[in-house]
Amino acid sequence: MDKVMKWVEDKVVPPMAKIGTQRHLLAIRNGVVSSLSLILIGTFFMVFINLPVDAWKNALAPYSATIVLPYRMTMGLMAIYATFVMGSDLAKSYHLDSVTGGILSLGTFFMFQMPVNVMTPKSAPLGFVLPMTYTGASGMFTGIVSMIFAVEVYRFFKTHNVTIKMPEQVPPAVARSFEALIPGFLIITTVWLIRDVAGFDLNAALLMLFRPLTNILGNNLFGALLPMFLIHLLWSFGIHGMSIVGSLVRPMWLIMLDENGKALAAGTAATKLPNIAPEQLFQWTVTIGGAGATLVVAILFLTICKSKFLKEVGRFSIVPGIFNINEPMIFGAPMMLNPYMFIPFNIVPLILTTISYFAVKLGLVNGFSSIPAWTLPAPIGGYLSAGNDWRVVVLILINMVIATVIYYPFIKAYDKHMLAQEAGKAEDETTTETANA
After folding, report:
1. CB-hemisphere CA count at 13 Å for 405?
2. Which of 2, 49, 60, 225 has the fewest CB atoms inside 10 Å of its own CB, making it the most exposed?
3. What is the pLDDT of residues 322-368, one digit of tens each?
């Protein structure tokens, strides 16, 4: 085990750590995270209209289109919000003007969309309208491409001083506008030639390109297990696994969730949603209390351990763990670089993922279609995310029991080790006091 951990630490961790600090991935992560507050608000309305009471659903049915409008204006437009923040964040990382980076990225994204000329009804023609087909999670890949293309072109022109410079007396906002004029003209013209003149639909092409991978992640057991394996392996060596893996797969997770939400709104049964494993499957039924399902570790530290240190870790970790904040446990126990915790910390998520995957696949619980606040206790968050399904609460409790059984012998061994250390330390202190006397 020591040799394996040493090999992973020397060979795997360094390149993954570099990936975690890569500026484009950081921009993607920050862009997605920035839109979560709006998504949380929007999904509340989806939960509201799908409460598990037939009388309630029937009463709201005539008003369903109006009630889900906030969902469409948040989740349905998330690619727009995220693209601006991604461009702003990437420009800032290059020490460029962040607002200009965001605007250029957003303009590029809109140019990749194809407006539709709606002339009906004839009495009040709408003119050109922008379809929402690719403004939500489905447009995230286009948003990422738009961000990279726009900011990198902006950086190139700025680095080579190919910009219009205004006198110092000109207000900063006006100066920024002229500074972006030349790169902006090239960016918009290039995208216009690609999308309108050449007729190349980047949105459809990217979705087609990533569809096999999205299907593997969403509806394949191996695809569900792989991100959990990588996330926890990295955490075992002190690297925030979700920051790295999440940056890569979260756009696809969001597409899966968006498809599930649209299917539910269209009347698809909650047990037959198109994607089994969006992020919420893991968030609520696997990483209970945080990565590694460490809420049960805090409970075991408090209830079965005799080590004063482990009891103290359990005491200050359990309340944050209830609300899915497990850094106190990760760094306190510690779970990382700990040979006693390495095996259960990595095995438990894989077993719980397998159980949860088949529970959804077989229709034993609802699929996941919304994003409640991530700090909710797992049973509440899982209940809301799965369309108010009480069976998900049962699944979470079963998973907690299974996690407890797996962790138990390893924690007992760790407790014995810590007791021996504490006893040795106490003996050394007694010897020192006797010598001093």
Report:
1. 8
2. 2
3. 998 888 888 888 888 788 899 899 999 999 999 999 999 999 999 99
Rounded CA-CA distance 107/376 in Å is 36
| Residue 95: alpha-carbon gap to chain centroid | 26
Phi, psi for residue 118 in degrees, rounded to 5: -100, 110
3-class DSSP state of 180: coil
Sign of CA dihedral 83, 88, 93, 96: positive
Return left, alpha or beta for 10; rule: phi > 0 is left, psi -120 to 50 is alpha, else beta.
Answer: alpha
382's CB contacts (< 8 A; 6+ apart) are 280, 284, 285, 392, 393, 395, 396
Structure tokens belonging to residue 242: 């979700």
Q: Is the dihedral of CA 207, 208, 212, 213 positive or negative?
A: negative
The beta strands (E) that lie in 7-66 are given as: none
Which 8-state DSSP code applies to residue 323?
T
Closest CA to 248 of 426, 26, 14, 432: 26
What are the tokens at 311? 């009891």
How far, CA to CA in Å, does 44 sit from each of 221, 243, 260, 368, 391?
Answer: 29, 26, 15, 14, 20
Contact 317, 332 (CB under 8 A): yes
